[in-house]
Amino acid sequence: MVANKDLQIRDPFVFPVPSEGKYYLFGSTDANIWGKGTGFNVYVGTDLKEWEGPFPAFRPDENFFSDENFWAPEVHEHQGRYYMFATFRRKDNARLGTAILVSDSLLGPFVPHSDGPLTPEAWNSLDGTLFIDEEQQPWMVFCHEWKDISDGEVCAVRLTEDFKGTIGEPVTLFQASTAPWATHIVSDKIKTNDKYVTDGPYVYKAGNGELLILWASFIERSYAQGVARSASGSILGPWVHEDKALFVSDGGHDMLFRTFDGRLMLTIHTPNKTPNERPIFLEVTEQDGKLEVVGS
Questions:
Q1: Is 134 helix (H, G, I), strand (E, B) or coil?
Q2: Which InterPro entries does the record associate with it (predicted)?
Q3: How far apart (Å, rounded) are the C-alpha atoms in residues 281 and 290?
Q4: How many structural domains is the chain composed of?
């Protein structure tokens, strides 16, 4: 068993299975996620404190389109199968993109489903997540990286029903700088003040029917987690940001899930520095579509 304090993982994603009384924890699990990619592991636990594993959920073969930067796996069940949305750096043009893998088991093995990334080939894109709208149309929400465009964007593109392709062009939902709480990157290496990050979008439908996107950026040097809400109720927005960040203590790349006793739980990694990143689990209250971390 491994405790959270000993578990190096970024971009944690939890898949609860009530019938088993088990939580499946996915994430960026390479010891050096900035280098060669070896695959993704999954951990299994019952109390969000200690975990069995790691179990090898995905291992690439020699024909896989990437061998570097394996990031942010999310797993979603759809029509009886498990689809993993994950970010990889392409061999052919060295750009980041989100591809989809599939498995019949949460433990894997996951295998390639889409023919490489479904994000634009010419973009650096990352952190794709699944959203299915009221008409049962699947979308992928993802980030267009700030390294391409300075002001990072959260975008959405429609998926084909088989999750193998896209329909139409991506739509920009919002830019990082439009959030009142987000600041430009403060770094010893970056000398300008026009670089804004978007990371880790996660779509959540609140109990009052409002559509929210949780996403990460920076407040100076500290990784932070914020919330935007759709004024129309549609994934296409327009999107309005909360004035203040949800979490400001150098943590982010979130998702929300329900515990087996019904609590709404936020998981993020913190601190945002390799190899010290660890998963944490924070109880969240929700009232009239507004989220607040308990005790904050």
A1: coil
A2: GH43_arabinanases (IPR050727), Glyco_hydro_43 (IPR006710), Glyco_hydro_beta-prop_sf (IPR023296)
A3: 18
A4: 1
Structure tokens at 130: 């699944």
Contact indicator for 154, 201 with CB cutoff of 8 Å: yes
Query: Considering only CA atoms, which of 236, 242, 192 is closest in space to residue 215?
Result: 242
Please work out, in degrees rounded to the nearest 5, the angle formed at the alpha carbon of residue 6 by the alpha carbons of 215 and 127: 25
| Contacts (Cβ under 8 Å, ≥6 apart) of 44 | 22, 23, 24, 25, 51, 52, 53, 55, 107
What is the C-alpha to C-alpha distance for residues 259 and 90, in angstroms, rounded to an integer?
Answer: 36
Q: Which of 84, 16, 62, 70 is nearest to 39 (CA)?
A: 70
Q: Is the pLDDT of residue 296 over 80?
A: no
In this predicted structure, the answer to whether residue 295 has a pLDDT above a threshold of 90 is no
DSSP letter at 4? G
Provide the residue range defining the domain that includes 201. 2-293
Which CATH number characterizes residue 61's domain?
2.115.10.20
Q: What is the model's pTM?
A: 0.97
Q: What is the DSSP letter of 200?
A: E
Q: What is the pLDDT of residue 183?
A: 96
The pLDDT-based confidence of 145 (bands split at 50, 70, 90) is very high
Statement: residue 191 has pLDDT above 80:
no
User: Rounded to an integer, what distance in angstroms lies between the CA atom of residue 32 and that of residue 40?
Assistant: 12
